[in-house]
Amino acid sequence: MTKADQIFKENIREILEEGVWSEQARPKYKDGQTANSKYITGVFASYDLNKGEFPITTLRPIAIKSAIKEIFWIYQDQTSDLSVLTDKYNVNYWNDWEVGDSGTIGERYGAIVKKHQIVHKILKQLEENPWNRRNVISLWDYEAFETSEGLLPCAFQTMFDVRHVDGEIYLDATLTQRSNDMLVAHHINAMQYVALQMMIAKHFGWKVGKFFYFVNNLHIYDNQFEQAQELLRREATDCQPRLVLNVPDETNFFDIKPEDFELVDYEPVRPQLKFDLAI
Q1: What is the signed CA dihedral for 8, 9, 10, 11, rounded to 10 degrees?
Q2: Are 153 and 109 spatial neighbours (Cβ–Cβ below 8 Å)?
Q3: What is the DSSP letter of 236?
């Protein structure tokens, strides 16, 4: 059992046994019913990527390829245009959050990255002074929220720090998430931001260090309790999955491609479980 599997089961048990019910829930299922959930707050996990600890469960297959493509859509393409995500990357699950007939998810995610030139600023700051303590990505833009409809960002803040250890520079990252669907999106969100961390580290020729993950509201929807019990019954496999970025050190951030990533030694438990998403 990996560290991620252990944390996953502990969180599931805590939500089912000690979690509280949501009130005035915003999300709906596709049939129009209110998507209530049980949740816990203030959940934190730490992974040392350099030691092979990656935040991905083996208890069910996780769609890492699609998750990583979403990161490219946000931080390389820097757009909220759904046609880029569907036509360029063949990823369609964001279509349920289209704002009207705009073809976008509103001024969110990639549009905010472009608006504030976030990637340019982060790379510039790290180049000029790697030890500065201001390397913050924030997608929480009140002005955009007031002028554009759309789902407010869940994974909304990332912070980066470097450490100089035994002649090597390690890049650490902290992901802060306001809300997270534990069974569906937890490891997807974590691993896609590990991919972003790896891209920035490769840009400078650094090693990846630690990944810290904080979720403010971690929940399981009321139509997923059976799947949650099944995950608790499953025995994790003996594999030790890790994500590899197959490009030379100091490859420019914008020259890296989704196919450069490889998830190795990943043998998840099957069959896959079905989840009806809350929109």
Answers
A1: 50
A2: yes
A3: P
pLDDT at 277: 84
Q: Calculate the CA 260 to chain-centre distance.
A: 18
Q: How many CB atoms lie within 10 A of CB 229?
A: 12
The per-residue b/e assignment along 178-209, b for 16 or more CB within 10 angstroms, e otherwise, is ebbbbbbbbbbbbbbbbbbbbbbbbbbebbbb
Place of tokens 């980066």: 160
- The pLDDT score that the predictor gives to residue 247 is 98
**Per-residue pLDDT tens over the stretch 202-213:** 999 999 999 999
Q: Where are the alpha helices (DSSP H) in 95-156?
A: 110-115, 118-128, 142-147
**Cis peptide upstream of residue 55 (ω within 30 degrees of 0):** no
Active site residue 154: yes
Q: Pick out the chain residues at pLDDT < 50.
A: none
pLDDT tens profile 218-266: 999 999 999 999 999 999 999 999 999 999 999 999 999 999 999 999 9
274 class by beta-carbon count within 10 Å (0-12 exposed, 13-18 middle, 19+ buried): exposed
25, 152, 154, 245: the catalytic one is: 154
